[in-house]
Design goal:
The complex is a heterodimer of chains A (about 70) and B (about 260). With about 70 residues, chain A is mainly beta. Chain A has 1 helix and 5 strands, in the order ββαβββ. Chain A has one domain: Roll (Ubiquitin-like (UB roll)), CATH 3.10.20.30. Classes of the chains: A mainly beta (about 70), B alpha/beta (about 260).
Chain lengths: ~70, ~260
C-alpha cells in the first residue's frame, strides 16, 4: 500500500498518496484548470508545469477562481 | 461627433460604465443586469474554489470573459502583500494584466489605505500590470499614484456601498484638471443621477455595483445607469452655459405686442 500524506487544500486537511503529482491532484478534484490559479506553499504555479511537481507532507495548496465582486 | 471611447492603457472600450458583479441574488440576475447596463468591463473578486461542491455555478459560465473584460480586484485586502498576492494569482488564471487595486484601511468605512495602495501600485506597475487604483479623493495622492505609473485614478464618491453620491465635487474637479489619466469614480454612488453628475464633472467613467445590484429593480437600474452615463458624457462634451445670478429671457423682446 502507498504511503499517505496530509496536505492542506484551500485551508482544509486532505489525505493523499505520497508523491502525488500536482497535476493528478487537480484532475482528481475535477477543477477546470483554465479557470483557476494554483499556489503551492504561497508560490504561484505555472499551470503548464503541474506534472513536474510532486506533493509532499504538509504542503499547502490554494486554488482560486473569479467570483462576483465589486 | 468622432468616436468617443474610454481608453485605458491603450485599450478602447465603448461603454464608460464599469459594473461590479457582487451582491446580486444569483449569477443569472447578475449576468442579465450587466448585459442591460451595456458595460464592457466588470469587476470580479479572487476567491478560493469550492472543492467539495463542484456543482456550484462558476462566474465564467455566466459572463464570458472573451466578450466582457474581467477586471480582477483586491477587495478584502488590507495590506500591500495581500493585494499583490491576489493580483498575481488573478493574472495566472488567464493572463489578466488590467487590474483594480483596492487596499482597504478600515473595516467600517472601507476607506483606502493610501500608503499601502501607493506601494502596491508601484510594485504592480513594475511587474507589468496596468493598475486602476481605488483611492481617496486627495489630489496630492492622485498625483503620486500617477507618478508611480497608475493606469487609471479611481477616487471614491463616498464610502463603498453607502449610496451617498458625490460628496466632494471640488476635489474631483481638481484631480480632473491635473491629470490626463482616465478618471473613474469608484464607489458610493446611489442612483443614476450621481453617475450623470460624475460625468458632467469631466470624469471618464464610473464604476458601480451596489446601486444596481441592491436596487429594488436591478435590471431597470442597470438601464438607468447606462443612460445616465451617456447623458452625463454628452452634457460634458456639449459645454454647459455659464451660471448667472439674474434671469435671461429665452424669447426675443422684438415684436412684443
Amino acid at each position: 500500500m502507498k504511503k499517505k500524506i496530509k496536505i492542506k487544500i484551500n485551508g482544509k486537511m486532505n489525505i493523499i498518496d505520497d508523491k502525488t503529482k500536482l497535476s493528478v491532484l487537480i484532475q482528481n478534484l475535477k477543477v477546470p484548470l483554465k479557470k483557476v490559479a494554483i499556489e503551492l506553499n504561497e508560490e504561484i504555479m505555472d499551470k503548464k508545469k503541474l506534472n513536474k511537481i510532486y506533493l509532499k507532507k504538509d504542503d499547502k495548496i490554494e486554488i482560486v477562481h473569479f467570483i462576483g465582486g465589486g | 461627433m468622432r468616436q468617443d471611447k474610454l481608453i485605458i492603457s491603450n485599450k478602447k472600450f465603448n461603454s464608460r460604465l464599469i459594473v461590479g458583479t457582487g451582491k446580486y441574488k444569483n449569477m443569472k440576475e447578475c449576468a442579465k443586469a450587466i448585459k442591460l447596463s451595456g458595460a464592457d468591463i466588470v469587476t470580479v473578486a479572487v476567491r478560493r474554489v469550492n472543492i467539495t461542491d463542484k456543482k456550484k455555478p462558476l462566474l465564467m459560465d455566466f459572463i464570458d470573459p472573451k466578450k466582457i473584460t474581467y477586471l480582477p480586484n483586491t477587495a478584502g485586502c488590507f495590506n500591500s502583500e495581500e493585494a499583490l498576492r491576489t493580483l498575481r494569482l488573478a493574472r495566472e488564471i488567464g493572463g489578466w494584466k488590467l487590474v483594480k487595486l483596492e487596499v482597504l484601511g478600515d473595516k467600517k468605512n472601507l476607506f483606502p489605505e493610501m500608503i499601502e495602495t501607493l506601494k502596491s501600485t508601484e510594485t504592480l506597475t513594475k511587474e507589468g500590470f496596468n493598475v486602476m487604483v481605488y483611492c481617496n479623493d486627495d489630489p496630492l495622492m492622485a498625483k503620486r499614484l500617477e507618478n508611480v505609473g497608475a493606469a487609471a485614478i479611481m477616487p471614491l464618491a463616498a464610502p463603498i456601498g453607502s449610496g451617498l453620491g458625490i460628496q466632494n465635487k471640488v476635489n474631483l474637479r481638481i484631480i480632473r484638471n491635473q491629470t490626463r489619466l482616465p478618471l473613474i469614480i469608484d464607489a458610493g454612488l446611489g442612483q443614476a443621477s450621481d453617475a450623470t453628475i460624475a460625468m458632467e464633472l469631466g470624469c471618464d467613467g464610473i464604476l458601480v455595483n451596489t446601486a444596481i445590484a441592491k436596487a429594488k429593480k436591478p435590471f431597470e437600474m442597470a438601464k438607468a445607469f447606462k443612460n445616465a452615463v451617456i447623458a452625463g458624457r454628452q452634457s460634458f462634451l456639449s459645454g454647459r452655459i455659464e451660471k448667472k445670478l439674474m434671469g435671461s429671457a429665452s424669447s426675443p423682446k422684438k415684436g412684443i405686442i
